[in-house]
Design the sequence.
């Protein structure tokens, strides 16, 4: 029998709690739900008002993994949804605005992916993102070198950057911005990626060409496009182990000498949130947003 749980007055059917989703560690679906409930205070701020793309893996990372953008069948009527503009026509998508909605979505077994804009103003980007993706034998250590250069370059334009792990091999840089369209932010990000490649030609790459990527860090600027999404801070990833896209300090980025130093699982992140709070909290404060240079 599927247990019924009440979360802030909403009744939820939470299924298959003993199911092992991460065989490498024995991490179960119940533990996935417990993780999200524990870090909800930090996670919800980064989900709120952002149309959610689900990267679902209901049988674990070794099973079928698929993207779902439209409102899933059976979505409770108390879960907030909104019509979202798309090139191919408007679509209705989920907004995770509160703890009951988060737990309902987590029960689907999904990574959370969100755009760099909020539903109130889809024409204006409020975040800038760089996805630093290493090509073997490069690792997150090389990503940290590129991230530090980008941090200084952004600071020169009055934009403060923050870092998080991708939860996979790389690193994400995020910054709060205002007053620009997604197109303009994309153009600016591409310009900085090109500049990074010109400054560090043996390390950084702004082109996606696979043959060029071994040993370099691909500075992916394209996720600033309005149609693109990025793994949300604190989301679990569909990897062999329950790794998390975890916020990190610049001190940790500067000191990183081995990939395992910036690899964080669910239990690690719970402890980090208890100790540090949300290291990306400033991204959600309007006064912290910078403006792109003219």
Sequence:
């Amino acid at each position: 029998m599927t247990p019924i749980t009440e979360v802030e007055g909403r009744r939820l059917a939470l299924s298959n709690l003993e199911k092992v989703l991460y065989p490498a560690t024995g991490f179960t679906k119940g533990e996935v739900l417990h993780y999200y409930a524990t870090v909800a205070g930090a996670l919800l701020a980064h989900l709120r008002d952002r149309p959610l793309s689900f990267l679902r893996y209901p049988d674990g990372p070794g099973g079928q993994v698929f993207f779902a953008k439209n409102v899933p069948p059976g979505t409770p009527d108390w879960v907030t949804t909104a019509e979202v503009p798309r090139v191919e026509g408007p679509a209705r998508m989920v907004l995770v605005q509160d703890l009951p909605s988060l737990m309902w979505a987590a029960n689907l077994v999904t990574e959370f992916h969100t755009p760099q804009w909020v539903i109130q103003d889809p024409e204006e980007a409020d975040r800038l993102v760089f996805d630093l993706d290493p090509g073997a034998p490069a690792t997150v250590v090389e990503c940290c070198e590129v991230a530090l250069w980008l941090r200084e370059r952004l600071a020169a334009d009055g934009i403060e950057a923050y870092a998080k792990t991708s939860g996979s091999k790389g690193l994400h840089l995020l910054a709060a911005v205002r007053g620009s369209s997604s197109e303009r932010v994309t153009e600016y990000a591409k310009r900085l990626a090109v500049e990074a490649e010109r400054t560090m030609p043996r390390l950084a790459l702004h082109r996606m060409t696979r043959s060029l990527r071994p040993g370099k860090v691909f500075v992916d600027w394209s996720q600033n496009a309005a149609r693109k999404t990025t793994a949300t801070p604190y989301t679990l990833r569909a990897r062999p182990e329950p790794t998390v896209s975890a916020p990190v300090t610049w001190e940790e980025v500067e000191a990183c000498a081995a990939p395992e130093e910036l690899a964080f699982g669910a239990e690690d992140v719970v402890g980090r949130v208890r100790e540090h709070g949300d290291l990306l909290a400033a991204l959600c404060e309007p006064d912290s947003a910078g403006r792109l240079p003219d």
